[in-house]
Amino acid sequence: MPYIASNRNIKKYIFSGIIVSFLVYLAIVVTCIMVFGSIEINYLIYPGITLSKAIRLRLQVFERGESLFMASWVLNTFTTLIMYYFVSTLNLKTLFNTNKEKLIIYIHIPIFILISIFPQNVIQTFKYLHFCTFIAQFLNFVFIPLMIIIFLFKERRSNVL
Amino acid sequence: MRILSFKYLKVLAAISIVLSLSACWDYTEIERRGYILGIAIDKAFPIPKGNEDTKEYINERDLEKIPTQLGEKKYAYTVQIPLLPQAQNKPSGQTGGGGTKEKTWELTILGNSFFEANREYSTRTSTQPFYEHLQVLVISEDVAKDGLGNVLDIMIRDPEMRRRTRVFITPKYAKGILDVQPRIEDFSSQYLRELPYNASKTSRILHKTDLGEVSESIHANLDFVLPRIISTEDEIKNAGSAVFKKDKMVGWLGEIDTIYLKWIRNAVLGGIIVVEDPMSKNDIITLEIKKAKTKITPISQGEDIVMKIKTKAKFNIAEESRSLNKPEFNEKHIKLTEKKAQEKIEREMDDTIKYIQRDFRADIFHFSQTIQQQDPDLWNEVKDDWDNIFPKIKTQITVDVDIDKTGLVK
């Protein structure tokens, strides 16, 4: 595999990486629903951050628990964004069939800035976010299964021949 | 040579990034912040504590009136700012503080938008109002009767506010509660915030009543209760509750009814039940709640909806008025006391439900939510007419009482 120095135990690490992030996100989603309820959560724009502000301890150790939460949340956000960046670079590299990584990486930056300043207000941002989610759902639940089916057909045919 | 200059370029870039991405851009010195500990919302024109007609206050009353940008002045918003040099509980443990001096400063502004009033406070204090440490929100009965939706929106929307701020309702002036000079704590807001933690000692205090709960209830179209507080000059009492239908207050619920409301809502943290002594007539036994759990299941019987309320409770005997004269330490006594407690709790729970159904018609037991969760088909049938169906709902209460320990003596 590219970008990986040693191939030993690679499956284990990929698997554990996915499982850890899956569990963390699941825990946050479940806690949000448990704390706010299914109705209130529809009225919140940022349920995760609101949740962090809703932490209350009987002891007055942290009156503002969210500052602690934010410290880890920022890291979390940046690592996620960098993973997207990495995946997008890989994809574009294959799409244009080129090896010029640096070019693709730097071309990304103005596109990011343009996308980020394009929505004028928070309502528009959420509109585009929903649009992106829709595309992602299409890719995940329609496109990828379709590709797998096509791949299986192709493989069977090649076996026959 | 080229490599070297590239290295310098990198260093330059790093330095410029560090300088331009400066952290703490909204940093304010700690003594420049006006920490707001409590907010009180009254109908316009509260009376400054005991000085209704004093001349010194006339000037302050003038300051309270502001020209609003739009609309008439409906509410009087009061904020409490602590005067830290006057506080007794100094962090370093030194004694002091000026005994009789006021420890807080209550600023009142009349207006119809809290945020407008909030910005107007800046015209009167040299410190900027800061709400991250807001402890309590006191609302007067008059405001609550007009609906909480109008006044609480800012508390939910503003990023500085937090959803765990406690909300209280008072029959008198809400500002009067902030004016209290408590004996134990320094500031009345802190004192008031600590009171609901005592809910593990008595069930007469509601404990899960913060802004988040209110917002959830209003959004989910549920009726709810908020704690009632009353005050003297140096004391606040938190007992009983205010009943809300949708977001408007409809009435008060007494202390005893609040106990059984908590039993039905499965919110009992602790407290006592006093029952008649089964062995001798004029004596009483006080039972301490160790554990209480309630489960509600809706059943539809023909036209009627019956709520099956099943409660399991565990008690210790805390006090017996007859015991020293005539100790009774046998199984029969325990069994009979259990029976008495069971009958009493069943009767009182039924009374509370009937009272609420008859007088308030507000579903503060959240029966609607129970039906919605456990029998969605039934809920779809009744949801359009729930306001009329709720008063007709029947209940079937079974209480299972266990007495565990009897204390140190027989």
Q: Give the overall form of chain A.
A: extended
Q: How many DSSP E strands of chain A?
A: 0
Helical stretch count of chain B?
Answer: 13
> For the largest beta sheet of chain B, what order do the strands appear in spatially?
4-3-2-6-7
Spatial gap, N to C terminus of chain B: 96 Å
Largest interface: A-B, 15 and 11 residues
Kindly name the structural category of chain A. mainly alpha
Rg of chain B, alpha carbons: 27 Å
User: How would you sum up the major sheet of chain B?
Assistant: 5 strands, mixed
- Strand percentage of chain A: under 5%
Instruction: Please give the radius of gyration of chain A in angstroms.
Output: 21 Å
By DSSP (H or I, 4+ residues per run), the number of helices of chain A equals 5
* Estimated helix fraction of chain B: 25-40%
For this entry, give a set of tags.
heterodimer, A: 161 residues, mainly alpha, 0% strand, B: 410 residues, alpha/beta, 5-stranded mixed β-sheet
Structure description:
The complex is a heterodimer of chains A (161) and B (410). Chain A has 161 residues and is mainly alpha-helical. Helix content of chain A is 78%, strand content 0%. Chain A contains five helices and no strands. In chain A, helix 3 crosses helix 4. By secondary structure, chain B is of the alpha/beta class. Chain B has 13 helices and 14 strands. In chain B, strand 12 and strand 13 form a beta hairpin. The longest helix of chain B has 29 residues. Chain B starts with a helix and ends in a 7-residue tail after the last strand. At the A-B interface, helix 1 of A face helix 8 of B.
